[in-house]
Amino acid sequence: MTIAAILENKGAEVISVECDTRVREAVELLAGRRIGAVPVLRQGEVVGIFSERDVIYHLRSDGAAMLDWRMEQVMTSPAITADPRMSVLAGLSLMTERRIRHLPVVKDGRLVGLVSIGDLVKHRMDRIEAEAAAMRNYIQTA
Fold first, then answer.
1. Alpha-carbon span 70 to 21, nearest angstrom
2. Where does the pLDDT of residue 50 fall: very low under 50, low under 70, confident under 90, or very high at 90 and above?
3. What is the pLDDT, as a whole number, of residue 63?
4. Minimal CB count within 10 Å: which of 45, 74, 76, 123?
5. Mean pLDDT computed over every residue of the chain
6. SS3 of 81, please?
7. Using CA of residue 80, residue 84, residue 86, residue 90, what is the dihedral sign?
8. How many angstroms separate the Cα of 127 from the Cα of each of 61, 120, 131, 134?
9. Share of the chain above pLDDT 90, in %
10. If 0-12 CB within 10 Å is exposed, 13-18 middle and 19+ buried, where does residue 17 land?
11. pLDDT over 70 for what percent of the chain?
């Protein structure tokens, strides 16, 4: 199964911000939408990602003044991205290896989706449960 299949089920709506967005606005967006990260775009291309971790790290080191900074000053860059054809297992492996929780999905240089580690784990669990149910059914009807 690929990340594209997860996006088909999840939907393709992606909330993002531009490089010149103020941190304060992005924090409002994260809190208001109850999400953990947003891709940061420059002219439609993913140039970074901004997450709750970025807020915490910069508040600790730079204080509340960082809320008036622009995204490009605080985002994690470059963003680690995935191709829609990437397998779910490869996506999980990448996220685990790089210790990230959100993966922008990019096709032909453009953002087409965003998956979280929760999305990928849920997909794997659903698949494992379906396989177990099929095995139980097979054993009971054999």
1. 5
2. very high
3. 95
4. 45
5. 92
6. coil
7. positive
8. 43, 11, 6, 11
9. 75
10. buried
11. 99
| Residue count (the chain) | 142
- The identity of residue 68, as a single letter, is D
Contact 90, 5 (CB under 8 A): no
pLDDT average, residue stretch 6-15? 85
How far is it, in rounded angstroms, from Cα 26 to Cα 33?
Answer: 10
Q: Report pLDDT for 52.
A: 94
Distance in angstroms (rounded) separating the CA atoms of residues 105 and 107: 7
Q: Measure the CA–CA gap between 82 and 115, rounded to whole angstroms.
A: 9
For residue 55, what are its two tokens?
């807020």
Residue located via tokens 């994260």: 30
Cβ(42)–Cβ(10) below 8 Å:
no
**The two structure tokens encoding residue 132:** 């177990």
Q: Which residues are within 8 A (CB) of 109 and not within 5 positions of it... i.e. 6 or more apart?
A: 44, 45
The residue to which tokens 């054993």 are assigned: 139
Q: Going by DSSP bridges, is the β-strand pair 102-107/17-18 parallel, antiparallel, or unpaired?
A: unpaired
| Phi and psi at residue 39, to the nearest 5° | -70, 145
Alpha-helical regions (H) of the chain: 3-10, 23-33, 52-62, 71-74, 88-98, 117-141
